[in-house]
Design a protein that fits this description.
It is built from eleven helices and no strands. The protein has helices spanning 25-31, 48-63, 67-90, 105-121, 138-145, 154-176, 186-197, 201-204, 211-226, 237-243, 254-270.
C-alpha cells in the first residue's frame, strides 16, 4: 500500500507547559466516544442555549475571515494562552485584574472558578481545583478558547483550552484502540475524517493545505483494499496490547496528537 500524508508543520507558538494540563482517566472514559457530540454536557453554570449562542457567534465571525486571518487568530490565541501561563507562573499579578468586569453573578463565578483552576495548576505541587468547563461540548470549548470578542477572560480561555486538549487526547486515544496490525484501519480513518470535518474554521486553518484530502486518500485506499466499511476486522488481544501503549507526548497540541495517531496508523497499514 502506497500511503503518504502531509505532515502537520503549522507555525504556532510554544504550547502551555505540559505539567499544566493534567490527564484524567475518568475524563478519558467518559468523553472518549462523545468528544465531537453536540449533546455533550455543558458547564454547569452555563445553559445549553447560551452554549449554542457562543458557538454560533464564533462560527459567524470565523466564516467572515480570510484564511490568513484565521491562521493569525489561531497563532495569537496560543501565544496569549502561553503568555498568561507565564504570568501565573511568575505570581506577579493581581487577581482582581484577571476577573470579568461585571456585576453578573454567574459570569463572575465562572471567571473566579476558571482563575482558581488556572492558578492551582501553577502551584507546587499542583492543586486540585476543578475545571468549570469540564464536560462542555468540544466546539463550544473552541468558541471560548478562540474568542476574539473580549467576552471571556484569559483565565476562562485557559481553562477551556485545558479541557479541549484533554478531550482531544481522550478521543485520539480511543481511536488508536481501533488500529490493527493487519492493516484494516478503515474505521479509524473514517473517524479522523469526521473529527476534521467537525472542526471550526480557525482550527482547520492551522493545518496545511490539502491535509483533509490526504486523510481521505488514505481512507479510500483502505476501502479499495479491504472493501465496504461494514466489514471491520477486530483487533486480536496481541494487537490490542501493543496498540494500548501511549503514542502521545506530554503537552502536545491537538494538531500534534492528530498527526501522531495518523503516523501510527500509516505505519500499521503498511505492515501487511
Amino acid at each position: 500500500m502506497n500511503i503518504t500524508i502531509k505532515s502537520y508543520q503549522a507555525s504556532i507558538p510554544a504550547q502551555v507547559p505540559a505539567q499544566e494540563i493534567p490527564r484524567s482517566d475518568n475524563t478519558t472514559k467518559s468523553i472518549a466516544e462523545n468528544t465531537n457530540s453536540s449533546t455533550a454536557a455543558t458547564v454547569s453554570i452555563s445553559s445549553s442555549a447560551q452554549a449554542r449562542y457562543i458557538q454560533s457567534s464564533a462560527t459567524e465571525r470565523q466564516a467572515a475571515m480570510s484564511q490568513g486571518e484565521l491562521k493569525q487568530l489561531h497563532s495569537s490565541t496560543w501565544s496569549d494562552i502561553y503568555n498568561f501561563s507565564q504570568l501565573l507562573g511568575s505570581k506577579n499579578y493581581n487577581k482582581d485584574d484577571l476577573l470579568p468586569q461585571t456585576d453578573d453573578p454567574a459570569r463572575l463565578e465562572l471567571g473566579k472558578k476558571s482563575l482558581e483552576y488556572a492558578i492551582s495548576l501553577h502551584q507546587s505541587p499542583p492543586g486540585n481545583a476543578s475545571n468549570p468547563f469540564a464536560g462542555m461540548a468540544r466546539n463550544d470549548l473552541s468558541a471560548v478558547v478562540y474568542d476574539d470578542s473580549g467576552t471571556y477572560t484569559m483565565a476562562e480561555r485557559y481553562a477551556a483550552s485545558a479541557e479541549l486538549r484533554m478531550q482531544d487526547e481522550a478521543y485520539f486515544s480511543s481511536l488508536s484502540a481501533k488500529l490493527t496490525n493487519g492493516g484494516d484501519n478503515r474505521d479509524f480513518f473514517k473517524s479522523i475524517l469526521d473529527y476534521f470535518d467537525d472542526l471550526p474554521p480557525v482550527e482547520k486553518a492551522a493545518y496545511p493545505d490539502g491535509y483533509r484530502d490526504s486523510i481521505d486518500s488514505l481512507y479510500q485506499e483502505q476501502l479499495d483494499q479491504m472493501g465496504p466499511l461494514a466489514l471491520i476486522k477486530q483487533a486480536t488481544e496481541e494487537d490490542t496490547e501493543k496498540l494500548s501503549e501511549s503514542i502521545f507526548k506530554e503537552g502536545q497540541s491537538s494538531q500534534e496528537m492528530l498527526q501522531a495517531v495518523l503516523e501510527k496508523a500509516i505505519g500499521l497499514s503498511k505492515a501487511q
